[in-house]
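Good morning,

Attaching, inline, the backbone tokens for the sequence recovery test we're adding to the shared suite. The designed sequence is right after.
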């Protein structure tokens, strides 16, 4: 991620000034920076679901988040598109997930297994006609939702893209290192942007894969 993007990101972080809102904010150890989202969870932070933003934040805060999530905000491609509205995108994402018959959490768990074990799982998945390819690139990614409560910046997720393809049909779906977190913790598939994740395609491509028998990386 370019340095100038980091400056944009930190300058748009949303500060919680209202005392009532502070009560809802995560109880974290202010004596040291948090460096992973796993630590956030351990500190008692409750990740906000995209469709519940209005229950936790003001309209002004949501609008600032939308500005951050548009193309060239916190990332080049953005998360919701030029004219996207986060709550509208979230409702559409819920409909997309309902069509799959699985939960956001289950989808995220499957993606994490592939993301964390692309090389070791490759032979197993090939037997099911599924090809996994990945590419690493310079930089990292940070979750925009987590900036709602924290004046903290960290490229927690590696710069990596993954492509899952069915070898017979040619159908494919891509995702980034950040995608499982967005889906599992925030119920967010993204809007009209290149990284919008289509869950129905992924379920169709991996329909012969028994994820319960694949051991995720510890």
């Amino acid at each position: 991620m370019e340095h100038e993007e980091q400056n944009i990101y930190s300058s748009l972080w949303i500060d919680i000034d209202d005392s009532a809102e502070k009560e809802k904010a995560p109880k974290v150890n202010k004596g040291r920076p948090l460096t992973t989202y796993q630590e956030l969870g351990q500190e008692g932070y409750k990740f906000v679901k995209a469709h519940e933003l209005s229950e936790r934040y003001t309209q002004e805060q949501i609008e600032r988040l939308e500005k951050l999530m548009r193309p060239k905000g916190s990332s080049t491609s953005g998360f919701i598109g030029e004219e996207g509205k986060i709550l509208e995108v979230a409702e559409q994402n819920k409909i997309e997930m309902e069509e799959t018959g699985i939960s956001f959490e289950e989808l995220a768990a499957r993606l994490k297994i592939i993301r964390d074990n692309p090389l070791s799982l490759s032979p197993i998945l090939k037997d099911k006609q599924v090809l996994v390819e990945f590419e690493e690139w310079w930089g990292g990614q940070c979750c925009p939702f987590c900036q709602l409560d924290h004046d903290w910046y960290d490229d927690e997720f590696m710069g990596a893209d993954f492509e899952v393809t069915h070898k017979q049909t040619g159908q494919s779906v891509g995702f980034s290192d950040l995608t499982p977190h967005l889906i599992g913790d925030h119920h967010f598939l993204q809007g009209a942007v290149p990284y919008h994740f289509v869950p129905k395609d992924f379920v169709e491509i991996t329909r012969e894969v028994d994820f319960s028998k694949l051991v995720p990386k510890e």
